[in-house]
Amino acid sequence: MELRGLGYIGIATRDVAAWRSLMVDVLGVGDSPGPPGANGDTLYLKMDDRCWRIAVHAGEDEQCAYAGWELPGEEEFDHAVAHLQRSGIKVRPGTDALRAARGVLDVAQFDDPFGNHHELFYGPMVDEFVFVPPSGGSGFVTDGVGLGHALYVVPSCNDALDFFGRVMGFRVTDKFSWGPNGAVFMRSTPRHHSLAYIDLPIPGGPGLNHFMIEAKSLEDVGRAYDRAMDARVNIVNSLGQHSNDPMLSFYVQTPSGFNVELGWKGLMVDDSNWTVRTYTGRGEMWGHRGVFMDDIADAKVG
Ligand SMILES: [Fe+2]
User: Fold this and answer.
1) Residue of 68, 110, 243, 259 with fewest CB within 10 Å of its CB?
2) Are 181 and 242 part of one and the same domain?
3) Ligand 1: centre distance to CA 293 (Å)
4) What is the dihedral of CA 101, 115, 182, 84, to 10 degrees?
5) What's the domain range around 74?
6) How does pLDDT run across 61-111, given as a tens digit for each residue?
């Protein structure tokens, strides 16, 4: 399966307005009218020349409705769907309505063995004009590497590695090992990880723990941090650098309970010289003080 990273992400929430306020007013992504087939109850958000990258759907639940994994074209998409089916995964083919809502040439839906919702797609709509971030920032790192990454809490990293590695074809970049528990970071583009998972019993899990978007400049992250402080949103990790990416980032809680990370200068892996690394520490070079990393530390000793 020749995945090209996290192409889009969909959220279901009772409070679309709060999501817009966080993503646009604080973190600096842009509004989009969405694809021509868009539902008026859905908020579409832009990060680059794609029609949209983040969709926020009005609903009764608070959850990640889907992570959209991109394929290069029709042939790779068809192969990926067939591969999932051969692997025993129930795949729901896209309908005309779903293709229109996503603004893609084709899409298929499936769940991973842990109950998280995913989609495969190819052929996303792009705009004919250059994206100008509403915050006046320099934009987001997406070209060839997807919108960012998603980290899930799963029951077992070994079981997750079997599915995301053997079935979906993500490659291991590095791992954290904490006795019987750990975390695994996987890539399908040069981005250090597009997908990660952790098998510690931390609050909010299982399911999506956070997704990450990457600004093109340090100043954009700093200004968004100021706006987050001014807006009094819940900053669950202060500015810091993880030991493996080593992205400079901070995390805020979204209206749906899980978190969003805004980062800068995450590592891009060179496959020609990369070897898998293992870490055993807290996972920070510095910073990231707050309940998020404290929850992970508490779960490790508990
Ligand atoms: Fe992250």
Assistant:
1) 243
2) yes
3) 11
4) -70
5) 6-122
6) 999 999 999 999 999 999 999 999 999 999 999 999 999 999 999 999 999
